[in-house]
Specification:
The complex is a heterotrimer of chains A (431), B (323) and C (275).
Chain A (H helix, E strand, L loop, with lengths): L4 H14 L22 E8 L2 H17 L3 E8 L4 H10 L6 E4 L4 H5 L8 H6 L9 H5 L2 E2 L2 E2 L2 E2 L2 E2 L1 E6 H6 L11 H15 L11 H10 L5 E2 L2 E2 L3 H16 L6 H8 L7 H4 L4 E5 L3 H6 L5 E4 L11 E2 L2 E4 L6 H13 L1 H7 L9 H10 L3 H14 L13 H16 L5 H17 L1
Chain B lengths: L8 H6 L12 H32 L19 H8 L2 H32 L6 H13 L4 H10 L5 H7 L15 H11 L2 H13 L2 H9 L4 H30 L2 H7 L12 H11 L3 H29 L9
Chain C lengths: L1 H25 L4 H6 L12 H6 L6 H32 L5 H11 L8 H10 L10 H4 L8 H11 L4 H9 L4 H12 L1 H17 L2 H6 L8 H5 L11 H27 L10
Helix pairs in contact in C: 4-8, 4-11, 8-11, 9-10, 11-14
The chains are: A alpha+beta (431), B mainly alpha (323), C mainly alpha (275).
């Protein structure tokens, strides 16, 4: 940021004309202030979430400033919508924040294009301590053999059901480990008894499809390829077509309402189905939106197919000129007991197991308690985590929704939709 | 000086195209022209042109936003070729967009003109009425609007309750691929405030003397509408037609709001610009998105040229310069 | 006749306003009721959404209103002045290249804006407009340079509706190009100016994406950006307070509109042409 404005104007014109924007030179080198220096450092940090998360994060960062008075933070937070658009724009302008939050939908997009700093050297030297993390959890931040991000919260799939309505209708609650067929039969019976469709149809839901695939010894991705074939998708669509025909699910248009990821649109909350397919850590927030009592269990089938998924991560921008301090901040947020207590389970169960048990012991919110308990129970049966989704993962998700919805609306047969889906996804991940 | 235009507009129109003036400006006027134009020119050079040219250049590359600029590869016309030969979704979005623009634009303009005519006279509470009619447009593409529309046109929404009064059982309109686009068109028509205001302003510019003179001549209300209002309003009608057409083809916000940014259900609301947005910012194919944008510019530009050409035959300017 | 007109107006209005009445009603529903009750009227009237929304964030909502007003007013002034100058040149003055420049201007309307986000960001950054204590420069400066072709074109169309005899008369009275602009075009362009002001204000008030990209500090956030902080699709969401603040955020624009449209009511022929 030096030079007169005239020079800037000129360089802008030249840059634009030659398309060699001066912005573009995120180099690895450069002087980086060390952690212990007393020189004032301002780190920019960017995350998405609600105001509750903002307060917690700001408090935890204040703790760091207390210990290192020379380090201050430029904090930016916003809701999920528009977050990645803004992050991408900032990255293109070489103005990306030093530290930013990211999730597994986009991690590979950023990591494979070298936007994120490889944290493995810091991990090796102990400056970034992941020894208290479950191994599968920190490994879920490794992309192309580089540690691209640090998991800030563990999470897993959860099937949330409406306890109040089921009990009122004299129906048994669904049971852990029941097969998919049994579950659909259960939902069919519940539909008749409770006069509310038994379950949301999850055929458009990538995380349900993923668990189901893993139970068939398949996976979403294998290396640089898809871990499943067209037949698998056909089987998946047919399973749920059967469920719809048996009236175990709502009609296609209502299913679509619930296909949105928004918590407030989940059918279990809007009262349009008795179960919804979510992440376990969303239970407390779901509970706030309904008067009925909610319960949670793993998805049907063998719970070993589920894994410790990193719900969110923090990454360091490779073009940052304060990398060491940035890594130290992340290390602090992940491992400092005090900071851990402040952050709580807002981003998922704390990755550091010591902090996790400390937090679990002090939680009072009953829904949060349940979600921690179920996560801990499931944790005992977790299988190994899959690889981080490939580039093009968001396309896979939207294409699955499109394909499933076209079957639900009767616009395509399971076979046609599955073929279109696989073709589209193959193109997306090979680009 | 005083306004003395009591001349009948029809005489204006009968005037031969005033080519006589074009290009015969004095040197002084030329200097003044560029002087008045200079802020715009500066804006064009410093702010508008560079990004546009950049996007044109990027349309010949594999630009993905995130990679470093040194990774940028020129791939010739690949993006353009891909769109026309290998991308069925492109053609699908063209269809959706044309259908939307062709239906929504005339409906919206008609609603805007109709209401503007109703509200052009001075009457009790007219300011409030105008404000209320403009209210829907004030909402723009806000989050609240998305929820409102989504809830109203759900299976258990207000619209179906209304249909229920007539014993009709409704659908989940927004969630049905056969009807979702209709709810989008409805939304566009509902937000007719902008062209309405422009029509209102245009109606105010019609000199009252013309109506008085016509009344003296014994012209009835309908006659006055066709021989005074319409021709005098034609520059403004033309403006609204051009802009709403462009706007219709660019329709993004309503589709984004209603489909949650996906273009669903089953791509039924996948407007061209929404597809372009998804390509650029979700799939990180900004080079391809740029190519899509320039094809759009070419196509809609052609349409605009057609509109300007036909405009010569029915738009009448009081400055007598029918260029 | 008058009665019929009124009945027609009221009938159309009822249909058009229904969704807004629904929104108003919903702003008085509790969070759980919003999701379960799709009707207009709240079963359980809870005005608490308003104070809760106002104070929901660390910075109260008045601040966002202030920020948005600041940006919007600046844009109104910028657009009104710069677009009027350019429009006068296009509509009234004859100079070499006028047709070409006019075509270029219309052309700038045609490119879908989303592919310009990244290049524009880079240009603004290179111009030194991004970030800093006053992050609104990229949102304001372009409007002082008539970059919004919509308004230039709008004003051109209006100016061409002004009889040229008036210019000629003024020239005979000894007016220069600038004199004609000042004494004839400016006073007669009021409908176009008012329209431009109204749209500039409202569109700026509602513009989400650009404001999101350039403003990064909670205290500097504008209304549309702040409104989206209420709903994080993955986590907590405060739908009721969001509706309450959405209703409130309509008020300033609504009042702005009602105040300014008054100038559309008064005819232009009776005033402004005395000089």
């Amino acid at each position: 940021m030096s030079g007169t404005s005239r020079r800037r104007l000129l360089s802008a014109a030249v840059a634009a004309a030659l398309l060699v924007p001066l912005a573009a030179c995120g180099d690895d080198g450069g002087e980086s202030p060390s952690v212990d220096s007393t020189k004032p450092v301002e780190l920019s940090i960017f995350w998405w979430g609600g105001d509750a998360r903002a307060k917690l994060t700001e408090d935890a960062l204040a703790l760091y400033t207390k210990k290192h008075p020379n380090v201050t933070f430029k904090k930016t937070w916003q809701a999920n919508q528009g977050y990645f658009e803004k992050l991408a724009t900032l990255t293109a302008g070489n103005e990306a924040p030093d530290i930013f939050q990211i999730d597994d939908n986009y991690l590979t997009e950023y990591a494979s294009r070298n936007v994120t700093l490889d944290l493995s050297p810091y991990q090796k030297s102990g400056k970034l301590d992941t020894t208290k993390f479950p191994e599968s959890l920190w490994k879920y931040g490794v992309v192309e053999e580089k540690l691209a991000a640090v998991a800030f919260g563990e999470n897993t799939q959860g099937l949330v059901y409406n306890k109040t309505k089921l009990e009122a209708a004299g129906q048994p609650l669904p049971t852990q480990g029941m097969s998919w067929e049994d579950f659909i039969s259960w939902a069919e019976k519940a539909s008749t008894a409770a006069k509310v469709p038994g379950t949301q149809d999850p055929s458009a839901d990538y995380k349900a499809f993923w668990v189901w695939l893993r139970q068939q010894n398949k996976d979403l991705y294998k290396g640089k390829e898809l871990g499943f074939a067209t037949e698998d998708v056909v089987k998946w669509f047919e399973l749920w077509k059967g469920a719809r025909d048996r009236k175990a699910t709502p009609t296609a248009d209502v299913i679509r309402e619930g296909n949105a990821t928004d918590i407030t649109k989940q059918l279990v909350v809007t009262g349009k189905a008795l179960t919804s397919w979510v992440w376990v850590n969303q239970l407390p927030e779901l509970q706030k939106n309904t008067k009925d009592q909610l319960g949670v269990m793993s998805y049907p089938g063998d719970p070993k197919a589920q894994w410790a998924r990193a719900s969110m991560y923090f990454s360091v921008y490779r073009g940052s000129d304060k990398k060491d301090v940035a890594v130290d901040v992340i290390n602090f947020l992940a491992n400092d007991p005090e900071a851990g207590k402040v952050l709580g389970t807002d981003r998922g169960l704390p990755s550091n197991l010591d902090i996790r048990s400390a937090v679990a012991a002090s939680v009072t919110d009953p829904a949060m308690k349940t979600s921690i308990e179920i996560e801990n129970t499931l944790g005992k049966t977790f299988g190994p985590s899959p690889q981080v989704p490939l580039k093009g993962h968001s396309t896979l998700r939207s294409e699955l929704i499109k394909a499933a919805e076209s079957v639900q609306a009767g616009k395509a047969s399971p076979q046609q939709a599955a073929e279109a889906f696989v073709a589209a996804v193959k193109t997306a991940i090979s680009k | 000086m005083a306004l003395t235009t009591t001349e009948r507009p029809t005489r204006h129109l009968a005037r031969p195209p005033a080519k006589r003036r074009a290009g015969r400006g004095t040197r002084r006027e030329g200097v003044a022209g560029y002087l008045f134009l200079s802020p715009w020119l500066l804006g064009l050079m410093a702010i508008t042109a560079a990004p546009m040219l950049m996007s044109l250049v990027l349309s010949f590359t594999n630009y993905d936003i995130l990679s470093e600029w040194s990774e940028l590869k020129f791939i010739g016309f690949d993006n353009y070729q891909r769109m026309f030969t290998e991308d069925p979704t492109f053609w699908h979005s063209v269809q959706v967009t044309v259908l939307y623009a062709v239906v929504a634009t005339p409906l919206k303009l008609a609603a805007a003109l109709g209401v503007a005519l109703l509200l052009s006279r001075n009457m009790f509470g007219v300011g409030l009425f105008r404000g209320l009619f403009y209210l829907p447009s004030l909402l723009g593409g806000s989050v609240a609007l998305g929820i409102v529309w989504f809830t109203m046109f759900n299976r258990d929404g207000s619209f179906n309750s209304f249909l229920g009064l007539f014993g009709i059982e409704g659908e989940g309109w927004v969630n049905n691929p056969d009807y979702a686009l209709s709810t989008l068109i409805l939304l566009a028509v509902w937000q007719f405030g902008a062209p309405m205001v422009i029509f209102l302003a245009g109606l105010k510019q019609v000199p009252q003397e013309l109506y008085e003179a016509a009344a003296v001549d014994g012209a009835g209300a309908i006659r006055r509408f066709f021989s005074i209002t319409l021709p005098m309003l034609s520059p403004v009608i033309f403006f609204n037609l051009v802009l709403e057409t462009i706007h219709g083809f660019q329709g993004f916000t309503s589709a984004f709001v209603i489909s949650g940014g996906t273009g669903g259900p089953v791509d039924s609301t996948l407007m061209y610009t929404l597809y372009l947005y998804i390509k650029g910012f979700t799939d990180y194919e900004m080079g391809y998105a740029s190519a899509l944008a320039w094809v759009f510019l070419a196509a809609v530009g052609l349409l605009t040229v057609v509109l300007f050409t036909t405009g010569r035959f029915w738009v009448h300017y009081a400055d007598g310069d029918d260029r | 006749m008058k009665a019929i007109r009124l009945v027609v107006i009221l009938a159309i209005m009822a249909v058009i306003l229904y969704p807004l009445v629904w929104m108003l009603g919903t702003s008085f529903k509790g969070q759980q009721e919003i999701l379960s009750n799709a009707g207009v009227f709240p079963e359980d009237f809870s005005p608490g959404n308003y104070p809760e929304g106002w104070n929901h964030l660390d910075v109260n909502f008045g601040r966002f209103f202030l920020n948005s007003t600041l940006v919007a007013v600046a844009v109104v002034i910028g657009n009104a002045v710069s677009c009027l100058l350019a429009a006068y040149a296009f509509a009234r003055l004859r100079f070499r290249g006028r047709g070409m420049w006019f075509a270029v201007m219309i052309g700038t309307l045609l490119l879908p804006g989303h592919v310009l986000i990244v290049p524009q960001f880079i240009v603004f950054r290179e111009l030194g407009l991004v970030g800093g204590e006053f992050p609104y420069l990229p949102l304001i400066v372009p409007h002082f340079l008539a970059t919004e072709a919509f308004f230039v074109f709008l004003m051109v169309q209006f100016m061409r509706g002004i009889p040229r005899e008036l210019d000629e008369a003024a020239k005979i009275d000894g007016c220069s190009s600038f004199g004609v602009f000042r004494n004839v075009i400016l006073p007669l362009s009021r409908p176009a100016l008012v329209t431009t002001a109204i749209f500039s204000f409202i569109w700026t008030w509602n513009d989400f994406f650009r404001q999101l990209v350039y403003v990064s500090d909670l205290e500097k956030y504008t209304v549309p950006v702040a409104l989206r902080l209420f709903i994080d699709s993955q986590g907590q969401s405060a739908v009721g307070p969001m509706f309450a603040m959405s209703v409130l955020s309509l008020l300033p624009v609504f009042l702005f509109f009602v105040a300014f449209q008054r100038m559309l009511v008064e005819g232009i022929n009776t005033s402004g042409l005395k000089g």
